[in-house]
C-alpha cells in the first residue's frame, strides 16, 4: 500500500511557473480524477508525481521517499505512468508490447514467468483486448492502441498508476470498460490517478476529484463537493447545470462564458 504525498510542490517550465504550492495526499484504494481546463497543469502534475519533472520547490514522496531520489528501476516498479497519446514505432505483437510492462520486474517480454504471463493476460482482459495478442501493434486503431498502452501500464502491477487522459480516444463502451478497470485496480489496493476531461465520467467513477486551475490546487473532494455550478463557471468558464439523476451527478454544459 503506497501513499503519494505532494507537499508545497511548485514546478517551473522555462520561465513559467506552471504549478504553484500544491499540497495533496493520495491514498491507496482510491481512484482520483484530476480535472481542470486546458493548460491548468494537470499533465505537469502527473509527470511530477511520476518523478519525470523536477520540482522547483517542495516534493512528491511515495511512502516517505522522494520520487526524485528513487532509482529508475525502483521508480518504474512502483509507479506505472501512461502518457497522453503515446504511440508505438515497431510492429511488435500486441502481447509483446503489453509484456514490456513487466521489464521493471526484470522479466524479459519473450520469456515471461507464469505470473508475468498472467499479469499480461489480465491486463489485456481489463482493457477489452483479449484476442488481439498476435496483432501487430502498428495495425491498431487509435482507441485500440490507447487501450494496449494502458494494458502495458496495468501489466506492471505497480502500486501507483498514473494515467494521462486514458479514455480520451475511446468509444463510450470502452470508456466505461477502462474506467471500470481503473477502479478495480484501485479497489485491489493501488493508488490510481487519471486525468479526465469528461466531467460526467469523473463524477461517476472517481472517489475523489482534484481540480487544478492555473497551476493551483483549487478544490478537491467527492465529486458532488467539487463539481458545483459556481466552480464550473469560475474554473472552466462555462455556464452549466449540475443535477442528480437516479443518484448520479449529471453535468450539462450550456454555453461558454465570455472571457473574464
Ligand atoms: N516545456 C514547456 N515549457 C514552457 N511551458 C510549458 C511547457 N510544457 C507545458 N507548458 C505550459 O505549462 C502549462 C501547463 O501545461 P500542462 O500540459 O501541464 O497542462 P494540462 O492541464 O495538462 O493541459 P491540457 O488539458 O491542455 O492537456 C501550460 O500553460 C503549458 O503551455
TrEMBL record:
Alphabetically ordered keywords of this record: ATP-binding, Nucleotide-binding, Translocase, Transport
Domain of life: Bacteria
SUPFAM superfamilies given in the database record: P-loop containing nucleoside triphosphate hydrolases (SSF52540)
Every ABC transporter domain range: 4-239
UniProt-recorded Gene Ontology molecular function terms: ATP binding
Record Pfam families: ABC_tran
Keyword Transport attached: yes
Family: Belongs to the ABC transporter superfamily.
Stated role: Part of the ABC transporter complex HmuTUV involved in hemin import. Responsible for energy coupling to the transport system.
Protein name (record): ABC transporter ATP-binding protein
Amino acid at each position: 500500500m503506497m501513499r503519494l504525498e505532494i507537499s508545497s510542490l511548485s514546478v517551473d517550465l522555462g520561465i513559467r511557473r506552471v504549478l504553484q504550492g500544491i499540497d495533496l495526499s493520495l491514498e491507496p484504494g482510491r481512484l482520483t480524477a484530476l480535472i481542470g481546463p486546458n493548460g491548468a497543469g494537470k499533465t505537469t502534475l502527473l509527470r511530477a508525481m511520476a518523478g519525470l519533472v523536477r520540482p522547483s520547490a517542495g516534493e512528491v514522496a511515495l511512502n516517505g521517499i522522494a520520487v526524485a531520489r528513487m532509482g529508475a528501476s525502483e521508480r518504474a516498479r512502483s509507479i506505472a505512468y501512461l502518457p497522453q497519446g503515446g504511440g508505438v514505432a515497431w510492429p511488435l505483437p500486441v502481447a509483446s508490447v503489453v509484456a514490456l510492462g513487466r521489464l521493471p520486474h526484470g522479466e524479459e517480454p519473450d520469456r515471461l514467468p507464469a505470473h508475468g504471463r498472467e499479469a499480461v493476460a489480465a491486463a489485456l482482459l481489463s482493457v477489452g483486448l483479449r484476442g488481439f495478442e498476435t496483432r501487430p501493434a502498428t495495425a491498431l486503431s487509435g482507441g485500440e492502441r490507447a487501450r494496449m498502452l494502458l494494458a502495458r501500464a496495468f501489466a506492471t502491477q505497480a502500486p501507483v498508476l498514473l494515467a494521462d487522459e486514458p479514455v480520451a480516444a475511446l468509444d463510450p463502451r470502452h470508456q466505461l470498460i477502462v474506467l471500470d478497470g481503473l477502479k478495480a485496480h484501485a479497489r485491489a489496493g493501488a493508488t490510481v490517478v487519471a486525468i479526465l476531461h469528461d466531467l460526467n465520467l469523473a463524477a461517476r467513477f472517481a472517489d475523489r476529484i482534484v481540480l487544478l486551475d492555473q497551476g493551483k490546487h483549487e478544490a478537491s473532494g467527492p465529486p458532488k463537493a467539487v463539481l458545483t455550478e459556481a466552480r464550473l463557471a469560475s474554473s472552466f468558464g462555462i455556464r452549466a447545470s449540475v443535477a442528480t439523476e437516479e443518484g448520479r451527478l449529471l453535468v450539462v454544459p450550456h454555453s461558454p462564458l465570455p472571457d473574464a
